[in-house]
Structure formats: C-alpha cells, structure tokens
Amino acid sequence: MRFIRDLNPETQKLLERISQQSKSPQVRNRAQCIILSYQRYEIEELMNIFRVSRKTIYNWLTRWEDQKLRGLYDQKRRGRNPKLNAAQEAQVKDWVKETPKSLNKVAAKVEKEWDIKISKSTIKRLLKKFNMLWKRLKRRTSKN
Asked: Is 61 in contact with 2 (CB distance < 8 Å)?
C-alpha cells in the first residue's frame, strides 16, 4: 500500500484546480491521481480509474514525492540528433545558393562529400532554418 500522506489545504486546492483546468490531459490525470491517493484509494483502484499500468501509477507518485508540482508536467526531451553539424549546414547553404534549381544535386553532393544521406525535405528544412525560400519552378508557362 502506497499513499500520498501529507498534502496541505493550499496544495490540495491547487491540485484540484490543475485537475480541472489544465490544458494537458496527462497533467490532469496525474493531479487527480495524487488527490485520490491522498484520499486512500489503492493502487489497483487507481489503475482501473486511469487505465494505466501499476508502474505508471508508481512513477506518478514517485515524481510527486521527489519534485512536487514540477513532477506533474512532462520534462523537455532532446529529440533526434541532427544529421549535419553547423559547419556542414553552412556548406549546404552555399551549395544551394550555387544551384538553387536542383536540390537533388545538393543532396548527392552531401552524400559524396560526407557520406551522409539526406533528403530534399531535409534540405528544405535547413533552408527554412536560414530564412531562405525554396519554391518549385514550373517548366512551362500557363496557357491563357
């Protein structure tokens, strides 16, 4: 049996407000779980109410005990590592300036120079990062 033991009235009110008004459903669930644990709901009951595993409930309670309110919110995550470093990105920018009509040639050059496969969409994201535009050119003019 594991319960949250000491919640002062201010924290209880804050948790109730969070459980009703937070934009994130995960945060609302975590806050509600802390409140119910304080009211002596057992782990099995909490698992059924929130439809999560026992490990998830224990993780929520542990994060509450360690971090209090900060533990309700998701921590910032890193994401995927970039394929190119800053110097390589600058070089790609220069290559695009040399041949702006053919991003496939730039992608081939990147693969030839550094043995890194990147797609046209990756190059477009890089251009967007440098506040550059890339637009498709029409082969023919419209017939009016």
From this structure: yes
